[in-house]
Amino acid sequence: xxxxxxxxxxxAGVFMKVSPLSxxxxxxxxxxxxxxxxxxxxxxxxxxxxxxxxxxxPMAQSYSGVGSPYWAAKGMLxxxxxxxxxxxxxxxxxxxxxxxxxxxxxxxxxxxxxxTCQDGIxxxxxxxxxxxxxxxxxxxxxxxxxxxxxxxxxxxxxxEWKLRSVANVVGLRDGQGQVSxxxxxxxxxxxxxxxxxxxxSSWLAHWVHDDVDEGAGYGARGIVEIGPKIVCAxxxxxxxxxxxxxxxxxxxxxxxLMAGWPTDPCDGPESYLEPVTSWSHRERLAGHRVTGLSKLxxxxxxxxxxxxxxxxxxxxxVRPMRASPTGECKRR
Length: 332
Description:
By secondary structure, the chain is mainly beta. It has 2 domains: about 5-95, no CATH class; about 100-315, Beta-galactosidase, Chain A, domain 5 (Distorted Sandwich). It is built from 4 helices and 16 strands. It has helices spanning about 10-15, 25-40, 85-90, 140-145; strands at about 45, 45-50, 100-105, 110-115, 120-125, 150, 170-175, 185-195, 195-210, 220-235, 240-250, 255-260, 270-275, 280-290, 295-305, 310-315. Mean pLDDT is about 85; it is low at about 315-330.
């Protein structure tokens, strides 16, 4: 709910004279970020509300308060720069993804980043970060453990999908219908092969029973049942992702589950899964008011027996997306 607070590090780099970005690019990113939210109507009676766009109270966590949205003020730090500073006088420059596709690896957290010029979507494939200490096994925490985050989607946070393994998931569903959680994953590979970003990680499938979540969404604690080891490899190129899944160990009954991105079927990007091996069941789930982006959210899933498999996985656009315009928020 902090919105353009994300601009604060860029302004801090300018103040400390250590920014790797040009003044014009810095202003373009920051002004475009502010404009993105303003165009969606982020205020109610000129007050910032709890969500990105229209108010969505389930986004609040146990530590949130009525003043939390005003962390956005940190993103206005640039207004303290003098009017003759280059960040205000030089022309804005295009963001790199506005000119070409971008792909990169951020090694320490285990992130594979894909930015596509055609639709303007930035995707972060998360193979190494879950917000937990090493060795800590907890319940599902979609805000931290999802296999993917993007600028066009939001993790489910409410309703029937709250704190459940529903979207951007690779897991095992046991005989009682409960999907395993993912934490304490180990990054085994993260590299470039030409223009393809390749990564691999593994974790122990586990289920948390008699769970209690403190309300912060970090993952519930409880009695942990440990299952087989899951190994998942990813190859990503220009918004298309291939996932390959191995299950090492036995599970008496259950299925392998793969879930795609949570998207708005009426107004937003389209996500679909194309099986490349013998997946036995394909289904599109629907949740109502489970995210702050749309009234209806759908997720496509594939299931198969523990024979394993892979899938071609993509998030694209139903129609061309209007680029986030320049904000031209010049200091006056």
